[in-house]
Amino acid sequence: KKTCNLIQAVDKEIIGSDQSTFPERIKEGDLVLLMCQSQIFGKAIVKGTVFQDESRVWKDKIYPYRAKIQQLEIFTETFSLEEYGINSLFRENLGKGWAFKVLFTPGDIPGNIIQRLLEVISEREVLKSEDVSDFLLKKESEYELKRKKRLGLKK
What global pTM score does this model have? Predict the structure, then answer.
């Protein structure tokens, strides 16, 4: 079952991965984009170093490699990498399998892509903290309905 883990990430102020290369790719002070089902819904800054923990935080599975996040901002509207040509920039710079390279191989993202991402997120409106929970619940419901529709299940 594909799930988004939006609420857990925001509530616990933590991101996680099941990839052993995660500690090599993430360090304190890094800007991370919070993404679900190809939609970017916010940003945060990594706080501290990556640590391992096997306790359950997320609904779908255990992500043992974790990092705390701070300065969390949730955008009023999600966006995809496709919308602003960012997906194309990744393909031009890193080739067809860019997602695999970015997700599983330590290394920096090319500067022109970082610049474009920063431009796009600087233009985003940010939700007030009191509106975040309702927004995330709504998004999780939308993602669940899409998943059921894709699988041919009833609402």
Answer: 0.76
33 neighbors 74 (Cβ within 8 angstroms): no
**Class of residue 123 by CB neighbours under 10 A (exposed 0-12, middle 13-18, buried 19+):** exposed
Q: What is the pLDDT of residues 96-134, one digit of tens each?
A: 766 656 655 556 677 788 888 889 889 999 999 888 888
Measure CA of the first residue to CA of the last residue in the chain; give whole Å: 16
Q: Which of 1, 16, 22 is nearest to 57 (CA)?
A: 16
- 24 within 8 A of 106, measured Cβ to Cβ: yes
CB 116 within 8 A of CB 86: yes
> How do beta strands 14-17 and 31-36 pair?
unpaired
Amino acid at 71: Q
Nearest to 77 by CA among 124, 109, 147, 31: 124
